[in-house]
From TrEMBL:
SUPFAM superfamilies: P-loop containing nucleoside triphosphate hydrolases. GO terms for molecular function: GTP binding. Keywords: GTP-binding, Nucleotide-binding. Residues 212-226 have a biased composition (Basic and acidic residues). The keyword rRNA-binding does not apply. Residues 201-211 have a biased composition (Gly residues). This is Uncharacterized protein. Residues 201-241 are annotated as: Disordered. InterPro entries: P-loop_NTPase (IPR027417), Rab (IPR050227), Small_GTP-bd (IPR005225), Small_GTPase (IPR001806).
Amino acid sequence: MSNRATSATSKPPLYKIVMLGDSGVGKTSLVARLTNPNAPLNHDISATMGIEFDTQMLDTPHGKVKAQIWDTAGQERFARVLLPTYFRKAKGVILVYDVTSAKSFESLAERWMAQLNDHANSDELAKLLVGNKCDLEDGREVSRERAMGFCEEFGMEHLETSAKSGANVLRAFERLITIVHEKNLAARGGGGGAGVAASGARGGGGGGGSYDGDKGGTLKLDEGNVRGDGTSENSANACGC
Ligand SMILES: Nc1nc2c(ncn2[C@@H]2O[C@H](COP(=O)(O)OP(=O)(O)OP(=O)(O)O)[C@@H](O)[C@H]2O)c(=O)[nH]1
Ligand SMILES: [Mg+2]
């Protein structure tokens, strides 16, 4: 059977991608803008307290693929215990900073890249640097040139986005998933793009938190019930209620 016939009949591949960055940079707002483009930005949004995930079909030059987007907690107390779960079977990472916060940018090199290297094979992960809140030009603390320096050092592309206006939001997710998909196609010698994450996407497994690859859901934690291995005494709440 030709590759063409295979791709016409097979399900789109599913890849897990992870949003990383300090608390308040706008990770949840970016995912909300992607999945619900017409809803206004929520300024009263709560900090993510564990993991929230959603799936979204995205276009690539090689056809449609499904992204399972893990929106993680930027707050140290939650992120620390959940890092192994965040990275398990992940194929791509969006590193988010806030263009109005130099601290959030510096944190990427000082904190998030180090944790990525500790918990995942960084070379195998597709990465994209995203400077969010580009609508707040008057408050800018991170220049594009500085961001480009980071990209050269760590080998990734860069986009500035606004979860408020919607600027570049779809483009950022589509760009990352295209890099992920192309890596997968290259690894398979250019053949059909079978879903790498799909086999692990149902029923969870050893990494903590079960989830359903076709739906969104949440795994909410609080300090009292987080164990050191990244699991929780709370059961995963995959219905999102
Ligand atoms: N002006 C502006 N505000 C934004 C933008 N994106 C997010 N915000 C605001 O920034 C605040 C934090 O956004 P969140 O999406 O909760 O940030 P987060 O990265 O998910 O934070 P944690 O869940 O704590 O890790 C909220 O008040 C948002 O309304 C943006 O593009 N422009
Ligand atoms: Mg959040």
